[in-house]
Amino acid sequence: VQLQASGGGLVQAGGSLRLSCAASGSVISINDMGWYRQAPGKQRELVAGITRGGSTNYADSVKGRFTISRDNAKRTVYLDMSSLKFEDTAVYYCYADIFRLHLGTARTDVYWGQGTQVTVSS
To answer: What per-residue confidence (pLDDT) applies to 35?
Structure first.
């Protein structure tokens, strides 16, 4: 199983970006998905999460500016970021709680994407 993140880049303050993260491999189903971020010198923090049923939660710092969504058929989670601020600059990591088959046994594990850099210039 792999998670492949994409969509990061350099954007001016006030701009927008869309991050995507797709799961591949021996996936039976995906439970929670979401995004964390880590800025230089800071701890990794939860940005947004979404359940399989579509319930969402957000960090207070991004509420009203970021929107998380998912496409279960495509095994993909998205993060639409708008009104970006300098302090949103970080490496963004997607995660997914994946139910899969492993050596004939079904199990659930949390997987992480490789991280994608978002840089907001002031």
So the answer is: 98
